[in-house]
Amino acid sequence: MANNLSFDKLSLKKGTVIALYGELGIGKTSFIQGLVQGLKIKKRIISPTFVFIIPYAISHKQYTFYHIDLYRIEKLEDTRGLGLEEILDNPTNIIAI
């Protein structure tokens, strides 16, 4: 399924937030890899489990895709300093969290 995802099929628009939830190893990053292929991003996609947030520029659309993993976050206070509010508030971003 991941290879068949495309920007047009998903009707993604700027400001879209995709919420992914599942156990470790269930395929969330594989889903994101297919999504990123559809967005025509050529970078290698890795899980942001240890860095929390990875931005990918979508040059042909003039905005940014953010892959966010908050699995290791235990308290809301732990998100301070990540820039999460700014990312979520920017209507030109597409976010998978």
Distance between the termini: 19 Å
CATH architecture: 3-Layer(aba) Sandwich
Strand content: 15-25%
How is the largest sheet built, in terms of strand order?
Answer: 1-4-3-2
The chain-level structural class is alpha/beta
Number of helices: 3
The major beta sheet can be summarized as:
4 strands, mixed
Fill in the CATH topology: Rossmann fold
Task: Tell me the radius of gyration.
Answer: 13 Å
Order of helix and strand elements from N to C terminus: HEHEEHE
How many structural domains are formed by the residues?
Answer: 1
Stretches where pLDDT falls below 50 for ≥5 residues? Answer: none
Describe the structure.
This protein is of the alpha/beta class and 97 residues long. The chain has a single domain (16-96), classed as P-loop containing nucleotide triphosphate hydrolases (Rossmann fold). It is built from three helices and four strands; from the N terminus they run H-E-H-E-E-H-E. It has helices at 7-10, 28-38, 84-89, and strands at 17-18, 53-58, 63-68, 93-96. The chain has a four-stranded mixed β-sheet with strand order 1-4-3-2, with no helix packed on it. The longest helix is centred in the middle third of the chain and has 11 residues, at 28-38.
